[in-house]
Amino acid sequence: MRFGIFSIFDYWPRVKNVSRYFSDILDLAERAEVLGFDTFWISEHHFTNYGGILPRPQILLAALAQRTHTIRLGTAVSLIPFDNPVRLAEDFGLIDVLSGGRLEFGVGRGLFGFEYDGLGIHPDESRARLEEGVEVIRAAWQSEHLTYAGRFTNVDNLTILPRTLQKPHPPLYVAAVSPESYEWAGREGHSILQVLYFAPIEGTAKQVVDYRSRLKQHRHDSSSKMLVAISPTHVAATSESAKQEAAEPLMNYVGMVGELLPTETKSEQYRAYTKLRPAMKKLTYDVLYSERPTVIGDPDQVIRRIENMNHILGIDEFVSFVNFGGMEHELTLRSMELFAKQVMPHFRSRGESRSPEAQNHAQGETK
């Protein structure tokens, strides 16, 4: 099992200014590499303190590529509908070169209608723009000369430079929340990125079974596809300390998301998201801690929670969502160190990977 670190870049000005925030992020990436984490993932959002201080993740990835040497660098996610996919192929091709072939490319379409409004794009086009955009980017990375005729992109005989170092292209992941995203990922043979604390894990498990069935149906090798689970994580020496230290930051974060989720939408593609807001606003810390797949506790508790997650879902990588809700930088670093020294060795010494149940699901069998 691989292990990673993720930041959503929710910004709390009362805690630190933006310059300090980015200084701390660079420190987190460097520390993650030294501690032996495999990946470092960053987000993209617009027009709000919920991640809006990082509107173009490729710029920060270029800096991280020069501050690190071995850790893989990923987007979770690049919001494909908001940009020209030809430009994205160029930008992220350059990131792959600057990092020495360490790019992990996660893609999605975003949650918020105000981002579409601000960029002059109708949310009804979100899925079509995502799917076509990814098709263009993959073609650009694999073709000497790109010719494409689509609904949003029409180009003829373009030379896309620089060429990615990874062949045929960097690993590609789809952020999956809706059934349609799982279906598309399974049909096209994409790996999956999941944020797990929103809902009970049992619902996610059904989506994963359906996804793996789609992979088999469309003749994709499921063993080569990654299932990456992202969850709010905080480790402390005792379970009481961990629970207390994470309480205010996690509820800050959940409150921010709940306020931004829509109560109504212009697009049927986002109708399901209007149901998330009341559900998020009802979430209590006790429910998040005890009944949702958050990973908060002492090292032994954290091990058990990840083992349970792996048993149910069959994950290939667990990514700790850190520094949420204005969490103090020193607490984040201490949590990462405990995780690296007391949690990761448990899985790596055992060669922990997909559980037998998940392996059967990957082969299209259910019990």
Number of domains: 1
What does the main sheet amount to?
8 strands, parallel, barrel
Judging by the overall fold, what is the CATH architecture? Alpha-Beta Barrel
Structural class, please?
A: alpha/beta
Count the beta strands: 11
Q: What spatial order of strands do you see in the largest sheet?
A: 1-2-3-4-7-8-9-11
What count of helical segments does DSSP give?
A: 13
The CATH homologous superfamily name equals Luciferase-like domain
Helix and strand run: EHEHEHEHHEEEHEHEHHHEHEHH
CATH topology category name = TIM Barrel
Question: Terminal Cα separation, in Å?
Answer: 24 Å
The pLDDT mean sits at 93
Q: What shape does the CA trace take?
A: globular
Q: What integer value in Å does the Rg equal?
A: 20 Å
Describe this structure in words.
The strands form 2 sheets. The protein has an 8-stranded parallel beta barrel, surrounded by 7 helices. The relative contact order is 0.14. It is built from 13 helices and 11 strands. By secondary structure, the protein is an alpha/beta fold. The longest helix has 22 residues, at 239-260. The chain has one domain: Alpha-Beta Barrel (TIM Barrel), CATH 3.20.20. The protein has helices at residues 18-35, 57-67, 85-98, 113-119, 126-142, 179-188, 201-217, 239-260, 276-282, 285-291, 299-313, 329-350, 356-362, and strands at residues 2-7, 39-42, 72-79, 103-108, 146-149, 154-158, 172-175, 191-195, 227-235, 295-297, 317-321.
